[in-house]
Amino acid sequence: MQQPKDLLSAEHLTKIFDIRQGFSSKAFHAVDDANFQLVTGKPEIFSIAGESGSGKSTLAKMILGMELPSLGQLTYKGKPIANLSKKEKRSWFYSEVQPVFQDPFAAFSPLKRIDHYLFETVANYKVVRRSEADKYINGVLEEVGLSIAEVKGRYPNELSGGQAQRVAIARALITKPSLIVADEPVSMLDASLRMSIVNMFRKLKEENGVTIIYITHDLATAYYSADRIAVMLRGWIVEMGPVEKVLGNPMHPYTQNLKDSIPQADPDKVWDKTTNLAEMEADEYTRKGCRFAGRCPAVMDKCKTQEPPSFQHDGRAVKCFLYEDAVA
Ligand SMILES: Nc1ncnc2c1ncn2[C@@H]1O[C@H](COP(=O)(O)OP(=O)(O)O)[C@@H](O)[C@H]1O
Ligand SMILES: [Mg+2]
Fold first, then answer.
1. What is the pLDDT of residue 19?
2. What is the CATH number of the domain that holds 95?
């Protein structure tokens, strides 16, 4: 059988939630018409970036089969993720697609020794025989810069955040996945450790051929590590392309704004300190026209009433009327 061309493909992928407003509720598109492809046999780091409340985690959860799409298609190796049976998920999908989450300690019980999880995963997926488990686990720990001697018999609270995240990544590597979905994997770590984790992703891509979806609100680590980037704003992918294009020369006013706010300690709060964030988020998600119109320095009249389409401009897609006259 021919290998499907796309490792992962999202077409018009949409997730609709309800926002509660007082006593009534209103539907909104937390992820709205997302389109992108990751190609089989072409490992890359694909970053999904944007401030908090832009739909990044919702997108990640759909890819991981934890949320069902409301509309559109999401396939892994040609198969719709939402239609996989429990058995297919367990025996196939979750051995190929592995998550890494923000809080490295959340995945581990404080009462269990951390190596327990590694042995358990090896046993669950029958990766190697019991007698070879030690050696195998040491191998995956070495991939993340640790050794079994450093973790064996230790409880989660005896590890640093950086070490715990490395163990979480080692655990994700046990099944030799093709795709790792890492949702804000470094945002709880000290700035000094972030680059080392991101470097490890690069190494895993280059040496192990793993494709990584790297979700972050930190453009510096995305710029440093990613091959391509999709910038999200309130459910929309507003700019997508090679990272050196999109972050080297951002075209969407939102990407420009995000990039300028890199030095800020809290990139989620730089816009307007007087605005209630949740309120602003709900307003932007449900407003007419462009969702950035309310804070865009280049806003035009039509932005307030019409949704901008995506235009191809200078090697990337950009969802903004400023580029309407550019060649499609
Ligand atoms: N299960 C849910 N039910 C209703 N709204 C949700 C749910 N999950 C997320 N949301 C809302 O969807 C929007 C996007 O959230 P999320 O995907 O977590 O964004 P991000 O990861 O970019 O911060 C937010 O407004 C959030 O409050
Ligand atoms: Mg999130």
1. 78
2. 3.40.50.300
